[in-house]
Amino acid sequence: MIVTVTPNPSLDRTVTLATPLTRGAVHRVSSVTTEPGGKGVNVARALSLAGVDAVALLPASGTDPMVTALRAIGVPFRCVPVTASVRTNIAITEMDGTTTKINEPGAHMDGAAIDGLTRAVVSHAEHAEWVVMSGSLPPGMPETWYADVVAKLAPYACKVAIDTSDRPLAALVDGFDRAAPDLIKPNAEELAGVIGYSPQALEAAVAQGDPEPVVAAAQRLVDRGVGAVLATLGAAGAVLVTDAGSWLAIPPPTVPRSTVGAGDSSLAGYVLADIGGADPPHRLQMAVGYGSAAAALPGSALPTPSEIDLNAVRVTPISSVPPARTSSASS
Question: Edge-to-edge strands of the sheet including 99-102?
C-alpha cells in the first residue's frame, strides 16, 4: 500500500492555446481538460495507472466535485470531511510546452480538520510501505505540519517522502533534528533556497551541464539525516544523492506539451522503482523516465508504464562515496 497525502487538493483545469500567450490579448482555446489534482493526488493517479495499490488522503466533503472526479477515474481515496469546496487551479499551456499556472490558495483548514487529517495519515501509515506527502499547505495549516507529521511517523516502518516548497520546506529542513524523511524532491530553486545558495548560481551550473553544485547542496541535507534527495532539474534531468553516492540522469530529447504533473510523475516513478527493489541509480532512472513521459503528454495527463522508455534515460555516477564519508572511512 502506498499512501499519498494532499493537504491542498485541487481540480486542475488545463487550457491549451494554439498561439503564444500574450498579456491583455484575446486567445482562442484549442482544448480544455479538468482532472482531480494536487501533487499527492497526481502521485496516486500515476501509481494506480501502474497497477500499484495506492490511496489518496485529502480534505474534501463527500459531495465535492473533486470526489466525483476521483470516483470517475477509479483512484482509491479517503476524505477528511471539511465544509469548504476544493479549490480550482488553472494551467495555461502553449504549443511549445510553456505552462503558466494560476493557483488558488485553497480552503481554510480549522483545528478540527487539521487534527483529522493528521490522525488519518498516522492511521494509514501503519499499513503503508510509503507515505508520500506533497504540495502546498492551505490557509490555516501551520507551516510546520509536514515536519510535525514526519516526527509522528518516525516509529512506523513505512518510508516517507515529502515534496513541498517555500516555508513548509524550510520548516521541514529545520525539523531534521527531530526526524527526517526518507526522500525529499526539491527542484533547483527550492534546493538552493533551503541551503542558502544562490538559486541563479545553481541554475546556471545546471544549464552549463555541471551537477556538482546541486550535489554539494543535496549532500548537506543528506548529512543532516534525510535518506535521499531527488533534485529535479527540468529538461536537464535530475540528480539523486544518498549516503551511498550521487547520480545524474539525463532524459531523452522530448517535445514538451505540458509540464503539469511532470514532477509528481517523477516522484511516482521513484516510489514505483523502490517498491520493486531497484537500487538508487535505477530509482533515478525510473523517476526521470516518468517525468519526461509526463511532459510529453497534453494537459494534466499522466503516463502509463507502456509510455516509459527507460533505455532512453542515461544515468551516470557523479561520485561513488560522498567526500565527507571518504575522509572518515580513511582515518
Answer: 29-37, 10-17, 87-93, 99-102
CB 93 within 8 A of CB 14: yes
pLDDT of 106 above 80: yes
Span 261-285, mean pLDDT?
96
d(CA 106, CA 276): 35
Is 309 annotated in the active site? Answer: no
Q: What is the pTM of this model?
A: 0.91
Q: Indicate the residue type of 2.
A: I
Q: Could you read off the pLDDT of 274-328 as tens digits, one per residue?
A: 999 999 999 999 999 999 999 999 878 899 999 999 999 999 999 644 444 433 3
10 Å Cβ neighbour count for 19?
A: 11
Domains and CATH numbers, the chain: 2-330 (3.40.1190.20)
Using left for φ > 0, alpha for ψ between -120 and 50, and beta otherwise, residue 256 falls in beta
How far apart (Å, rounded) are the C-alpha atoms in residues 163 and 42?
A: 12
- At CA 151, angle to CA 125 and CA 158, rounded to 5? 30
- Going by C-alpha positions, the residue among 158, 147, 148 that lies closest to residue 123 is 158
Distance of CA 233 to the CA centre of its chain: 13
Strands 2-5 and 54-59: parallel
Over the range 174-187, which residues count as b (16 or more CB within 10 Å of their CB) and which as e?
Answer: ebbeebbbbbbbbb
Query: Can you tell me whether residue 11 is helix, strand or coil?
Result: strand
Q: Three-state DSSP class for 242?
A: strand
Q: What would the pLDDT profile of 190-232 be if each residue is shown by its tens digit?
A: 999 999 888 888 888 888 888 999 999 999 999 999 999 999 9
pLDDT confidence bin for 46, thresholds 50/70/90: very high
Cβ neighbors of 157 (< 8 A, separation 6 or more) are: none
Residue type at 147 in one-letter notation? A
Distance CA 247, CA 101 (A): 30
The C-alpha cell that represents 134 in the structure block: 506533497
Q: Out of 64, 163, 264, 274, which one is annotated catalytic?
A: 264
